[in-house]
Design brief:
Two copies of one chain form a homodimer.
Chain A lengths: L4 E5 L8 H13 L5 E6 L1 H10 L8 E5 L10 H7 L4 H10 L5 E4 L3 H12 L9 E2 L1 E5 L2 E6 L9 H19 L5 E5 L10 H10 L5 E6 L11 E3 L2 H26 L3 H9 L1 H10 L2 H4 L2 E4 L5 E3 L6 H17 L1 H18 L2
Parallel strand pairs in A: 1-2, 1-4, 2-3, 4-12, 7-10, 8-9, 8-10
Antiparallel strand pairs in A: 5-11, 6-7, 11-12
Chain lengths: 343, 343
């Protein structure tokens, strides 16, 4: 059995450190399979919350002090260089040194990516990491990657993302021959920008189930299991989906509150709204794994609640069990051989 | 008063030519202010529909024959070079020669952009055109541009899009000091890819109400009136919003049909669903203008209905009245002077 030691960046997120500590307390309770949780943060600043959640002497909790925090407004590379004692950098060093097996952070995404790229390092052969986000389609979820780790991409990066996404879909979601799509501006092979046109040529030769270009609308019809794109586009798409979902809830409230008949209708159907909310629930999903690094890192939403932190820790624990990294290393190696053979 | 002669590419769109002819019939009825509609298409293929909608001898309708059609699957540049007699190329030539004042097309977007860029030409000083799409935010619509005309962009293109979008927001929506945002991966100035970082430096020096970076989610909170981005990202975002809206309607139907209580609720609230559908209704908006060309072109959705075609013709007619092009020329000229002064 694999050991499961998970570090939580308790200073990261809009409601840190309170929700992180509350989430850790819930995770220690709910997941006895986790050997150890390591809370990384400013010990004086979290002491009060540790006490509040009865965690001052928990047998499966370790505390590690980090003097600094990366603020959301800081440029990620600068933060990394200037703040070597930040909670996320300290956590990455613990993983580099083999003292932990996974990290969960709801803090500055760019800083988590930078710390894991520079300190933890990428897997052998992997040039850049990618965030694998789950988006809700009409008939279930699909994986979008990169959702924001590698903002400036080359075609080879996208090819590697496809392999990482394929491995993730197989191991974590049990999909046999995951359908891989390339996000573009039209379904036809000829459509796209320079990056996607180059990536298309690599992807169509790879030993994967590549279904060609997919579009922003058709991907919500679940025509692909994994949709590959650069991190800038992926981030814009992910946040657009989030923005639309919130706007829809607002419009629903507005239109239902217009008159008594509708309000009665809405009340009779109120459990339906709860169901609807759960479909795209960020709390349930907990966080998105950063794939391609020499370890496990799960990135939560900045607005994470205690429930999302708890679920994010669960996702990190699952990612340790699935052990995707060895498979990614071997697939990326094969891709390099194939690409050098093709000139 | 400006003359209003509008060409409709009747071969363009998934349901062409039927819906185009039906839309023209409705527009001739509803908008007496339009001097002339010019139906451009394969005359033998449309004869039957003209007869069906009583248009064979309409005093304000002219027919122009076009031998070819650009199919949706063709690469746009190839289509333009190989099909000089396509309906969209013939329409662009009519505009170039001053025989019409605007074009509406629900056909191949890339071909419409290419024909208007190469035949109609861009406005003096404008390097590349942009599609200005309306997206539904929590508290009303906002403008996203470019929604897919210029797939590969330079920073100067984005700066010009900002000026075109600003002019459009002022003239068409009557907004006094339109708030211009730059779509990026974080709200902070430092976030973005190479393109947006370069564009940010130009935009912050321009005499516009530039509010900085906006994100895919925050733009749906109506923090900006105009959101600027490259055409690849804009297209992905626009189609994601569309895909999410469709998926939401599907989920709503699923959750409401689960039991009798909910179904009763849904029935009591059924007018609310109609209202909701109207919020993001593509039929009502008709189409998105292609800004930056030496004329007026409104691009409809491939799946346009007769109602959308009619509304697209209305939008084309309004764009002629607003006369945005002279203002765009003068603003772009000032930008060039400013940029050469700044070195």
């Amino acid at each position: 059995l694999t050991e499961k030691r998970i570090a939580v960046d308790v200073m990261g997120g809009d409601h840190a450190p309170r929700v992180a500590i509350e989430g850790i307390a819930a995770a220690l309770d709910e997941f006895p399979g986790i050997d150890r949780i390591v809370a990384v943060g400013h010990l004086q600043k979290i002491a009060h919350y540790l006490e509040a959640y009865d965690l001052t002497d928990h047998p499966r909790l370790t505390l590690v002090h980090a003097e600094e925090v990366v603020e959301m407004c800081e440029p990620s590379t600068m933060a990394l260089r200037g703040k070597k004692k930040s909670s996320i950098s300290v956590a990455a060093k613990l993983m580099k040194n083999g003292e932990i097996d996974a990290i969960f952070s709801a803090g500055h995404t760019g800083a988590a990516v930078a710390a894991n790229t520079v300190i933890t390092r990428t897997l052998p052969g992997v040039d850049r990491p990618a965030i694998a986000a789950l988006l809700p389609g009409q008939n279930g979820h699909f994986i979008l990657m990169d959702a924001g780790a590698t903002i400036e991409c080359k075609a080879e990066n996208l090819a590697q993302f496809a392999l990482m996404g394929e491995t993730y879909a197989r191991l974590v979601f049990g999909i046999d021959e995951p359908r891989i799509g390339l996000l573009s501006v039209g379904g036809e092979d000829s459509k796209g920008n320079d990056l996607t046109k180059d990536a298309f040529k690599i992807l169509e030769k790879m030993p994967i189930n590549f279904i060609g270009n997919v579009e922003g609308n058709s991907m919500f019809e679940n025509i692909a299991d994994v949709v590959v794109c650069d991190g800038f586009t992926g981030n814009a798409v992910l946040k657009t989906a989030e923005g639309m979902a919130k706007a829809t809830v607002k419009w629903l409230k507005d239109v239902f509150s217009k008159n008594a008949f509708r309000m009665t209708g809405a009340m009779l159907a109120r459990n339906a709204f709860r169901d609807l909310k759960e479909i795209g629930d960020a709390e349930e999903c907990g966080g998105a794994p950063l794939l391609g690094i020499n370890g496990v890192c799960v990135i939560g939403h900045g607005s994470s609640t205690a429930k999302s932190v708890c679920n994010g820790i669960r996702v990190a624990s699952e990612m340790i069990s699935f052990g995707a990294n060895e498979k990614i290393i071997s697939k990326v190696k094969q891709l390099k051989i194939q690409m050098s053979e093709n000139g």
